[in-house]
Amino acid sequence: MALNYNSITNDIRAVNELEKFVITKAPTLVQLISGIQAQYGNGTFISTNNTARNHKYEWLEDKLTPISSNVNTVTTQTSIIVADGSVFQVGDIIRFELQTNSTPLAGLSQITAISTNTLTLANDYGSTTTGTIATTHKAVLISRPYNKGSSAPAGKFYQSSTEYNYTQIFRESAELSGSDLATATYDKATTMAYQEQRAILKMLRELENSILFGSRVQRTSSVNGTMNGLIPFITDAASTVYAKNGALDEASLEEVFELIVTNGGGLNSNYAIICNPVQQRKLSAINTQGTNPIVYKETNDIIGNFAQNYLAPISVGTQNLNARIVSVPSFDVDKLAIIDLNNVAIVPMENRALIVEDATNNGDDGIKTTFTSELTLEVRNAGECHGLITGLTL
Questions:
Q1: Residues 6 or more apart in contact with residue 126 via CB below 8 angstroms
Q2: Tell me, what's the pLDDT at 157?
Q3: What are 160-191's pLDDT values in tens digits?
Q4: Is residue 381 a part of any domain in this protein?
């Protein structure tokens, strides 16, 4: 007796319980970055103000004037060499803070002369006592006072720089045989719309991993080419990477936000904190302030898997800085990223945001649909607006 073969496993038959197939929602990070719609068929897949017109996508970057520079050499307590002397002017009032956690020395100093990166200091400014300056410190601008009748101050000129990324092609297919299409199931697996939605979600998950970990490789005739991700952008810039080498605490988060400010990034109220579920639980454990919590649950029905927000003790205008916590299982367990959502975007190649094609060949017993999207990631001011904590213990 011949056996009947059917590749569909959920065809209708006499069963007491129905198997329910659950598709996890589209990745939260993809949702948070402007321009992405989760559902194919209920809106556009990519909607953004910018489009790429070349495989190499470039953008201009600008930043606020930095207000600090690390101390590289202490020649004497009144003559030091900093990493970037252009941050300061003669007459500036500065103080010194530890590079690792911003703990300040008690007093202030005034800059009396500048020669490239060498600062000459008059310590114990006013009634303060500066303390002992070391190469573990950074010089931080406090104020730039002027006397009455003074001439117009010299302008600080900063020219925009250019950064770039490459586009990457993402492709997925949905396919059903003629027999599959004719088979009734409980889970709608034999409907093409169901298979197409699965294909789109798979492509979104690949996109999320590329957004985080991708490496910038130019496309050639023999190399497919990939785009750079958030973590490589921030790591390469290095200036807002904080090596904790210990357990996550609130001071670590504050340190990164301070690095963003002192490097000229500025602050806003549209951040995402990206971490592994292990570090998300660490964040939850920090919440010990009773009626004044610093971590609280999201109360609306936003799609995705972030369930908490972080309320930093840092003001932005008249409000505290707020960051949404995004738990990503594939994220490095010893790292935590702080992303300025106002300065990151997913950019499609012009007319290639999402191409849907019928890939069924003539005579095929079934239907096949392919989805193609060519995208890149724009990360503005990676070393000023975004931050990374490394060396976190479990």
A1: 108
A2: 61
A3: 778 999 999 999 998 888 888 777 776 666 68
A4: yes
The region of weakest confidence among 91-100, 240-249, 313-322, 355-364 is 313-322
Shared domain for 227 and 295, answered yes or no, is: yes
**pLDDT of 11 higher than 70:** no
Contacts of 382 (CB under 8 A, 6+ apart): 163, 233, 234, 236, 237
Do 348 and 229 share a structural domain?
Answer: yes
The answer to whether residues 54 and 85 belong to one domain is: no
Q: 71 near 138, Cβ under 8 Å?
A: yes
Is 235 within a domain?
A: yes
* pTM as predicted: 0.72
Decide if pLDDT at 329 tops 60.
Answer: yes
Q: Give the domain extent around 42.
A: 28-62+170-392
Q: Per DSSP, which regions of the chain are E strands?
A: 56-61, 68-76, 79-82, 93-98, 109-115, 118-122, 137-143, 161-166, 168-177, 241-246, 271-275, 295-297, 308-316, 319-327, 336-340, 344-348, 355-358, 366-379, 387-392
